[in-house]
């Protein structure tokens, strides 16, 4: 079996199963007709850039970086929507008030979106300043913030 086929099978297996250890992964591969050594599994994990993330059950499992980032972004958006109190703007600055202590986490949610319209964010305990690059872009950014608040 070619390495690319083995890699495809590994990605499929971690998508469908909560795989906690390299031994578990090697056993599942064997069950699918792919015999590998622990060293090969270890190398494959590095090459596929798999990381361990917390599963819904509280145990750690292998996941791709993309999946982990998507999960993190989802949690950040949930934190954002749960903590934002008000949103207003003045010229190209958008001012977001949050629950006390939530400013940094809410700003991280916005930063994780990588919106080109935003020049930067500055967060305090309960306030975030968003500097929008162009005044004409403010309505669009406000619309996107509103969409995040409804999630």
Please describe what this structure looks like.
The chain is of the alpha+beta class and 151 residues long. It has 2 domains: 3-69, Arc Repressor Mutant, subunit A (Orthogonal Bundle); 71-149, 2-Layer Sandwich (Gyrase A, domain 2), CATH 3.30.1360.40. It is built from 6 helices and 6 strands, in the order αααββαββαββα. It has helices spanning 3-16, 22-31, 38-47, 65-83, 103-113, 138-149; strands spanning 50-54, 60-64, 84-90, 93-98, 118-123, 127-132. A 4-stranded antiparallel sheet has the order 3-4-6-5. Strands 1-2 form a two-stranded antiparallel ribbon. A hairpin with a 3-residue loop joins strand 5 and strand 6 (127-132). The longest helix has 19 residues, at 65-83. The radius of gyration is 21 Å and the shape is elongated.
Summary?
With 151 residues, the chain is an alpha+beta fold. Helix content is 50%, strand content 23%.
Instruction: Give the fraction of residues assigned to helices.
Output: 40-55%
In what range is the share of β-strand residues? Answer: 15-25%
Taking pLDDT < 50 over at least 5 consecutive residues as the criterion, the unreliable ranges are none
Query: What is the number of independent domains?
Result: 2
Largest sheet: 4 strands, antiparallel
Count the DSSP helices. 6
Number-wise, the strands total 6
- Give the mean pLDDT: 90
Question: What is the N-to-C succession of helices and strands?
Answer: HHHEEHEEHEEH
């Amino acid at each position: 079996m070619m390495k690319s086929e083995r890699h495809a099978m590994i990605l499929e297996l971690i998508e469908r199963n909560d795989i906690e250890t390299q031994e578990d992964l090697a056993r599942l591969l064997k069950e699918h007709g792919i015999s590998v050594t622990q060293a090969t599994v270890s190398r494959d994990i590095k090459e596929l850039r798999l990381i361990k993330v917390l599963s819904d059950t509280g145990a750690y499992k292998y996941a791709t970086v993309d999946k982990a980032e998507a999960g993190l972004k989802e949690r950040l958006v949930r934190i954002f929507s749960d903590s934002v109190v008000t949103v207003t703007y003045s010229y190209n600055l958008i001012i977001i008030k949050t629950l006390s202590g939530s400013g940094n986490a809410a700003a991280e949610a916005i930063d994780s979106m990588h919106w080109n319209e935003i020049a930067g964010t500055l967060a305090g305990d309960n306030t975030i300043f968003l500097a929008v690059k162009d005044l004409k872009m403010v309505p669009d950014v406000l619309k996107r913030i509103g969409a995040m608040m409804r999630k």
